[in-house]
Amino acid sequence: MLRTATFNSGDMALDAFAVDSGVWTVDNGTLGDWGVTLEEYIGTPESGEEYGISLIDLGADLQLNSVVEMGTVFSTDSMAGIVFDYYNDHDYKFVAINADTDEVVIGHYTTKHGMTVDVSAAKTIDAAEEYELVVSLYGNTVGVELDGQAVIGYVLNAVTVDGAQGLITYGETVYDEVTIKTNDPAFQEEGENLFAAAVPETPVGTALTNEELEGIVEEAKAIWTEYLGTGIESTLDEVSVTISDLDDLQLGYTEGSEITIDVDAAGWGWFVDETPEEESEFAGTDSEATGHMDLLTVVVHELGHVLGYEHTDTGVMSATLEVSTRILPETGAGQAGIDNITVSGSDVFDYQLVEIPNTTNSKQFKK
């Protein structure tokens, strides 16, 4: 989790918030204080102004292909919510609930046209009630949940994470909690990486899709289950897997139960095996796997870290992977067989894979 402000517990430094416009006050504390006991963050427009905005300093710029989920618990007597892709106070996008019109809205603001609602959904909004609003951003897509239910989505004509993020109010709004999650590599803590053994001469630009990743994750989890036997299903069921543009030669990254797979295999392009139960593609020098990184090997490797395996000098848990190579644990061999190259069965178990644009299971990093 990148940033969390739970104002009634004081677990976030409020210097992450910067007032852009309007009047923003903290009950039982002031902006900039660390470790104070806070009640709530209250925003109102300046007298005569239309709205007030408080931006959040993430501490780093986000990559344009990053997944971002912003959530807040709040109440409002007018219209309020989350602002994103913010460039200035006359160029931004927003998601809000509107107590005056009983709607959830996605919109944008420009100097020429002022506030424009792009899409809306009817939803009864009581000014005396608190609501949990969650906004998921990926590429040019926006997904919105209210109190745990998907209510609206929209596709914009530009990326959604290029500008700043924050809070917006058109009346008096009381924010009790603000959360931001992302899979952006800038916020990764120490974890385990798998690297390509070499740099490709000519990088391949084909991007991995969630659909392609889904089947490989199923097979990789089945391989570990057959290899280690029953008893690991609950651990594997907690795993989340996402796609991101990792730095340099990184193929995969694991922190806890959260795995990130590079979008294009460090420029090599992924071999996504449609028949993972057999490995004929690795028997010769001219096949679909030639010149690419084996996605199944990488996912099996990263799941190995989730299961507690550390890097080894050789085998599936080696810290580097050669191109056109498949390495899997040997079925039924126990831990001593981890360096052997075999293909195991194809039992399928449930798992959590991030769906775009909804990012409930997306990778969360602490700043």
Number of helices: 3
Second-tier CATH architecture of the largest domain: Sandwich
The rough form would be described as: elongated
Portion of residues in helices?
under 10%
The value of Rg in angstroms is 23 Å
Output the structural class.
mainly beta
Distance between the termini: 8 Å
Name the CATH class of the largest domain: Mainly Beta
- Which superfamily, in CATH terms, is the homologous superfamily of the largest domain? Exo-inulinase, domain 1
Order of helices and strands: EEEEEEEEEEEEEEEEHHEEEEEHEE
CATH topology of the largest domain: Jelly Rolls
Characterise the protein shown here.
Strands 1, 3, 4, 6, 11, 12, 13 and 15 form an eight-stranded antiparallel sheet that branches. The chain has three helices and 23 strands. It has helices at residues 210-228, 233-237, 295-306, and strands at residues 3-6, 17-21, 23-26, 41-44, 52-56, 68-76, 79-88, 91-98, 103-110, 114-122, 131-138, 141-146, 149-155, 164-169, 173-182, 192-196, 240-244, 250-255, 258-262, 270-271, 293-294, 320-321, 352-353. The longest helix is centred in the middle third of the chain and has 19 residues, at 210-228. By secondary structure, it is mainly β. Helix 1 (210-228) packs across helix 3. Residues 1-6, 8-13, 29-38 and 331-367 have low confidence and may be disordered. A hairpin with a 2-residue loop joins strand 7 (79-88) and strand 8 (91-98). The protein has two domains: 3-182, Exo-inulinase, domain 1 (Jelly Rolls); 189-353, 3-Layer(aba) Sandwich (Collagenase (Catalytic Domain)), CATH 3.40.390.
